[in-house]
Write a structure and sequence with these properties.
The structure holds 3 protein chains of 3 kinds.
Chain A (H helix, E strand, L loop, with lengths): L12 H8 L20 H7 L5 H32 L1 H7 L9 E2 L4 E2 L2 H32 L2 H16 L2 H28 L14 H26 L2 H9 L4 H30 L2 H6 L17 H8 L6 H33 L8
Antiparallel strand pairs in A: 1-2
Chain B lengths: L4 E10 L2 E11 L4 E5 L6 H8 L9 E9 L2 E2 L6 H7 E4 L11 H10 L6 H14 L3 H4 L13 H14 L4 E5 L7 H14 L4 E5 L3 H7 L2 E6 L2 E7 H6 L4 H7 L5
Helix pairs in contact in B: 3-4, 3-6, 4-6, 6-7
Chain C lengths: L1 H6 L6 H43 L2 H5 L13 H32 L4 H15 L2 H16 L4 H26 L2 H9 L4 H12 L1 H16 L26 H9 L4 H30 L8
Classes of the chains: A mainly alpha, B alpha/beta, C mainly alpha.
Chain lengths: ~350, ~250, ~300
Amino acid sequence: MDSKTQQSRIPSFSESLSQTAVQAPDSATAPENRDPVVASPIREFLAGRGSSAFADRWFRGLMVACALSIFAIVGLIATELVLRSELSLKKFGVGFFFHSGWDPVAGNYGAWPFIYGTLVSSLVALVIAVPLAVGLAIFLTEMCPRWLRSPLAFLTELLAAIPSVVYGLWAVFVLVPLLREHVNPVLAKALGWTTLFSGPNYGIGMLAAGVILAIMILPIISSLTREVMSAVPHMQREAVLALGATRWEMIRMGVLRNARIGIVGSIILGLGRALGETMAVTMVIGNRPEIAKSLFAPGYSMASVIANEFSEASDDLYLSALIEIGLALFLVTIVVNALARVLVWAVTRGAPARAV
Amino acid sequence: MGVGIEVTELDAWYGTHQTLFKINLNVPANQATALIGPSGCGKSTFVRCLNRMHETAAAGRVAGTVRIGNLDIYRDAAPVEIRRRVGMVFQRPNPFPTMSIYDNVASGLKLNGFRNRRMLDEIVEKSLRHAALWDEVKDDLRKKSGASLSGGQQQRLCIARALAVDPEVLLMDEPASALDPVSTAKIEDLIFELKSQYTIVIVTHNMQQAARVAERTGFFLSGKLVEIDATHKIFTNPGDKRTEDYITGRFG
Amino acid sequence: MAEQVAISPYAGSNGNRMRRAVANHMATALAIISTLLVVAPLVAIFVYLIYKGASSLNFAFFTQIPKPVGEVGGGMANAIYGSAILLGIGSLVGVPVGIASGIFLAEFGRGGRFANLVRFTADVLNGVPSIVMGISVYSLIVLPQKHFSALSGGVALGIMMIPTITRTTEEMLLMVPNSVREAALGLGVPNWRSVLSITLKTASPGVITGCMLAFARVAGETAPLLFTAFGNNFWSSNLTQPIAALPLQIYVYAISPYDDWHRLAWAGSLVLIVLIVVAVALVRFVTSRGILKGAN
């Protein structure tokens, strides 16, 4: 097995190796139905490796088990939430969600103020974010010069990557003072008659929560809208342009009309994110379980009340009520996300999948 | 040395669509056998049945008997065992993109747990020499990735990779169809060299190629083997009207 | 004139033409304005963060633990350390499960109904609000253990990493050409070996990217840690005890009434953001370079 003694010409592949290599075990030790052709050490080696069917089965099983663990996790979350909120579920029933007293001292719990706060702040966020996000998506897919597209997309991606708590910090020290000193007085003067923008102006409150939520969900809506819009076939655009349409008419009729279901889906996905958003909202919404007409007034959201009161919940019923709010949040976000996915799929199906 | 192949009553399906019908065919050892026929005639499916690659497609199904040497490959052994003994070269060169030239050639052994480095060096060199690639790549065996070679070189790399596990049979599924004429000529020379040591089955849509490299040629049509005979006979005096139509270009 | 009208996109009566031209320009203007409005807060946040954070960052921030209320100075060394531990545990949970599930989806369950169900469940898990994840892990681990712990915080983060890693792993594996799989199978390589050493290895830049993305996302998570890791003002590396975390510390300091703590919160945010931006930029760099350079 000394390579130096080998001839430089290679006579036959298998033969030369069997000459230089260790002697193959004699035929008596080999399995009976072994081919007589098996002669080279390579063939000997490979023939001894077995079918690996056992290892393959184990590997596959392991992968399936990991995939199943995703079900298990979601299942565990659901059962834990249901079990731990049982006390409150039994005591208050469905009325829990429509009742607006929240008095831990008296043992009186109603989640309506939190639901109201969550809905209103999310709606404010959508009202602000949707036009901007769609505008941004239109600009990026249809108008943007090529050199600007990638940096802008990167910037919006960064916007999505900033942690909630950092948004909250910025909102507390920059956004809230800005709203209080400059924006709110103008709004109050111009739109005060609607009662939406009236009352004492603290800066913190529903409006601040809505604005920061809008900034946070913008990249989600925008990137999905972009994806949906680029899934619209080029033919649709050209067909409209061929009829002599302007660019805006092409976008409106060729792109937006075809992508509208998917855009609605991306908006709903943004809503899902807004409903469950915790830290930034908690830091600016004011944390007062009241239902006020004015957006200047402080409120409370479902996620915020959990974040603030969970670790101080002293008795079982209190804890159970908070977990029930969590359960509601869990169920709502599942429904909202499922709906959004189905809508986005309806448009992008067939187009290659991309990471969001 | 190679071994002969004996195929009896072979049927193959994709889902409910039957692609091969009752194929009976013998491939003698240490010769090249070419399979020709119009595209979609089942010749590729047929060679993929010879190393049990057909069943890697989710809907692939096979019935009948294939004996390689004296081993019934569908009854006596597991697919991986067969594939180690029956090498395959695919239509498009498919080196492993993340591996060096050396690792590509050694992959069949390394991934099956072969650890003897000195022997690996030896085998890699021999395989590359056999595939007529050694002189072109010997200086950057470990530096260059397999994907950095030209198309023709990649295909010869794939042949070297198949040779490294010292198979008894080499299946080639239109190995030159994605290559330029110069590379094709090299591959054909290679097949000519290799057939003294391996049993080669080569699928080709190029009749001249079959005539050049193969002792025997089989003609497939619509999933059936129309005839198989000595190559010169098929091309000069075919026994079947359909074969004649095809090789004279009167077909389709 | 007639010819001109025919080729102009504003064909029709003069008034109609004007209206359409105006609408076209207005739409363009609105799209540009909304782009600016999106970019503005981002730039504002970054500029302010860098300005505030950089002026507050100092050596002590990385070496000292928080000072008691009222004392100036101190740092977040223990929080950075704690975050590292939490993210380590999270990765131990999330990376293997995520990659394995991705392998299942791409290599075994392709197109099947079960795979679709797994994919949908991963999406559901991805949508679970982080605060809900927090209380779930609280009742799953903290309650039985009877105290807050680094372990529970890490597990919460790990679970949140799973969906992202699963989906990117699947996508990246699907980008590996089938011919590469066939090459491995054709050599008689066992399936498990071919998946790990060939397919996964070929896709590894993309898979690593996905892991980093997931990592960056949970690095800034606060809500799931509130009732699991809980926070700690001192050094701790005991996995069964509460542990400090950078985002938690930022939160606590941000809502405190002390200027010096605000300063630390800004510094902490800057550190967090730099970490995340680097990760995202790296991810973008790798993906734009083509995940499978050289694959045919």
